[in-house]
Amino acid sequence: MMAALLTTNSSDPYNSSIGYGNLTSIHLPINQFGIEYSLSEQPDNSQFHWFSEFNVVREMHQCINDIFYQEGYSRYSGVLELQGLYVAVLVETWSYAGEYVDVDYLVNITNPFTGEEYPTDLVYQPLYNANRVSAFKISFNFMNYRSDEQTFQDVSLVSYFKGDLYLNEDHELNKVGNSADILSLQNFTYDDSVYYNSTTQTIFVEDTNNDTFYIRDDNVTAMGFQSLSHTISTFAIGESMGLLKNITLEHLQASDWNTNIGIDSFLHGREGLDPGFASAYTLSDLTYGTNLEFSGTLSVGQGTSSENARNLMQIQSELIKNQVTNYNVTDLMVVSANFSRIIEKDNEYNMEVLILNLGNMPVDETQLAFMVNRTNDEDVYEIYTMLFNIHDFNPFELRSYTASWVPLKTGAYTMGIVIGDIEEMYATFKLFSGFESGLSQDYQIEMSTREINYMSNALSRTIIVIDPSYYNSLKYDHFEVYPYFLDQNPMKIYAPLDYAIYNLTTFTIWPIEKVTIGTDGIGSKLVFFLDSDLSNSNIQPLNSIQQNLSPYSAIPLVIFANPLTPPGEIHFNITFTAPGSNSPFYYLPVNLVITANRGRIWFDAVHMNFFVSQNLVGQSDISLDAISTDSLDILDNFGNFEGKDFQTKEGVFDLTRLVDYNERLDTTWGSYFKLRQLWADPANSFDGMKGTSLYTIFPLLSLNFSDFIDFDALPSSTEENSNDEEYFFNTADAIPDTSFLGDTIGNYAFESDTLSTSTINHDLLQFFDGLVINDPEQGFLLEEIDDIDEWVENGGTLYVWAEDQYHTNLTSLNELLDRFGFQLANSSFYSYLDNQEGEASDGYCHVDLSFQGSINHPIFNQGTKIPEFIALKDPLEVFLTDPSNPETILLGQKSHDDGVHATMGVGHKGKGKIVVIGDHDLFNGFMLNVDNNTAFAQNLLQWGLNNVYQSNVSISSPDIGFYEQGFIDVNITNFDEVKAKGLLDDGFLFVAAFFAANGSLINGEIYGIEIPILPMFFTDDSHYATWYDSVWSLHAGDYYVLLIIDHPAAASELIYIRFTVHPNDPPDPIIFYDIPQPLYSHWIDILGTLSITFMAMSLWYYNVEKYKNRLRITPLKGEYLNTAQTRINEGRTQLKLLLRGLEKDDVEEIERIRFLLANQNRLTTYLEDLKKFGESIGEHYK
What we know:
1182 residues, Beta-galactosidase, Chain A, domain 5, Immunoglobulin-like
């Protein structure tokens, strides 16, 4: 509402003899008014909007001529609108507070054109100069004109002021041209004091003029705001920008508000604290077709002391309330009219007009005129008029009318809409033109109560009537689309999985209805059009859309570098086809160059203030009520923005209603495009082979896996499967590590069946090798911090770049960094503005990397070019939370005024790495060209992603025929290194996918099962192999095998192999063996088989029974016992004789052999007799 305030005393002219007079003070009490409400159909959904978010329907303008009001009364008005809520803004001023007396004191009015004077009926006695009115009466009239007729419920008004008085004290304005002193300009903002007076419910700011050249006594100013119509409900006093931010984000629920309105409060400004104040007022419900009013005073008092200034300020407010004349004002306004610059001959043209009674007097009767006129070739005026009679038009009542006209001839016309009494307007015109000078006093009396300023009573435009048949015949021949070709910077496609968002603009001289917009060639695999469905507010990606095109129509689309498309140059067209036609009338060429990449890095946009407002609707250029990461209630489905309006009046999706384009500059689509371009260049990779992709992922998207995967049919994560129960699904459950697939299929776990981009989460992080957190404004959830911590532990690389506390949520960011042993200071130790005349006269912090040995760290010296100096802007100092931790180190030290400051920190945790830099400007498009920042950015990438799989790929032959196979062998040349680092262990992914040149996926086949991917099979040593079989798609052409290699602690990589399949003769047919017929019936074979089986079973039974007896124990008695003892003694004797003969020392070995052979028969006879005796007692032995 207000940006500056000037106070001056025109009655005190400058006196050169004393050196002062007519002194002017300049103040900057920046002000905003806002409104909070809920709609009757969503009573629990509170909305808040500053007036700066509203559409300006009629700009503020002076609508009362002060000639007719001798108190110096003036009136300024304007109209705002948002979603059917209209606000009439009135600012009324009086130069003096006047009193009417009984004596006739006629004040003449001078005609500004003729100089003649006219008497009036105003009886007026001005007061002394001490009763000048240095105050404004500010009124808001809210009018409900919603198309759905909903009620605005629980309406509250908020007033905010940034309390800065005396801009020009201490001659600060004289320092603007001096770069060394420019920062001291902020000093004037710190010495103000803010107060709340509970007795008068006035909230105000005061300050003393510290200008040493100001020699007058009245050097204290107080400025305050007080309601005239409503009791204050709550107030807030605090640091100005923090207070504004908190009210913007949390509205009346912000903790800054003080509901104890019966106690005085104050806050003194100090260095670093610029005070501000706000107040809130509860209004009432606003039903459709009604209005409600709020009014207040903004008063200024300038005195010799604080008390004197406050009293004068309060007196000014009282003068507004009780002493000034409240005039009867009639003020009619044409609020809006939907003019069309070009209309068609012979077609009915309808214009809707909205009018408002902006005065405080009802209008019994007036007229609204719709007029069209032109001068034809014969110098004849042609006029068409519609006149609407208006009755009983009440103050702050909105009415709409529709005027119709059928133009019969082509040409240029003037079209206008005017409201007011026609006779009165004509008479007033003659009066001010000097045509009549003898008007009676009675008429002048009547004029004083009538509307006399017609600035807001009319709207007019020049319109062109054309012959539609002529332009319709040219619409296809003169149709164009911008940009004229794709892709374009910064939405450039470099590698698979890159994506670009474009908003095409059509140039057509005539509307074209039902145009089918699609693609030809392989474009359907790469381009998706965004269509906003009015029925459910869903944003749906489609391969083609049908749209009515008019001049400057928008066509939003996404180009997605589908990895299942051939690498290299890709050419196709976006086509525009008229209804009923088979051939497009316009082609927009698309030329892409897609190169296989190594490494994927996520550039965080989740924690930026990325969205326009909580409603995601508006024209504001700042982020208001940005959706925070802890408010996910509207993020349940892909693109589901329930109740949000993304469409223009023409029904076309409008990206600006969703995204804050200014915040886009902090992404790879803005200031960091050159960094994305640099890292995508293969020359800057670890071995100069492949570039790395840097992605900005669009927030608020979600993908539900359950839509295309039946999780109920898959094993769940359980302790038996050795998987963490926190996961919804784990690939190790479906494919165990012990299977031949499990060795190279990776290990991906999902905490939910919905993949969401609204937070940094585990499910997304596992697909990336690096994460860049750049200048986060939004805080981090505890779940996000946990997931990032776990991801780094498993091998991810985290890059953190930050600004000071006014641009970055350092409190939350330091909570994240604490997990890795780092912290960032709140403010810069090397101010850009303070050092404009420093070492390089450019304000940058130039860091010599040789200082304290930073250059020796691998992050600086492993690249192709070693940076010697890097430049930072307003860097923050980086600290270690535990200096004894060997895994963390400070680098990039800079010696400055108060000591040595580290600008970055580098560390390891688990298998992962982290880099913390106290500056984010270092990597923007401009700063990359300063010092050796480009080389540092290259080295930063190489150090972070230096775990790579280096390989040689060989194939059996690039050409194969029908029914043949092509074999692929991949030799990992650094096999021992990656194995030692654990990059072939759990989580190792090495698979192959197959697709045709047109982007169609081809299923591979193994063991008769068709699957979309095949694992790479480990063969021997460092080799992995797979194959492509032409029978999987028996058509001639080019076919591709995509090899995907990845690990949580290594850079992912894509490898493409092409096979050209040509026709070939089919293999010889299979010769089947003819089994001869038997000579006899098969039942004879069965009978014989059964006989043999019976005999075998009989023998088996006999042996079983025979050996059962061996297990029996027969008791020896009588003769059996004697025989047994005899046999045993006989055996003992024979064995003793044999041992005795063998133990003779004087006998040679040959003699001993002969001795044994001589006793062989005797020993054999004994054993046979022993066997017979054993069988007689049931002991059977073979």
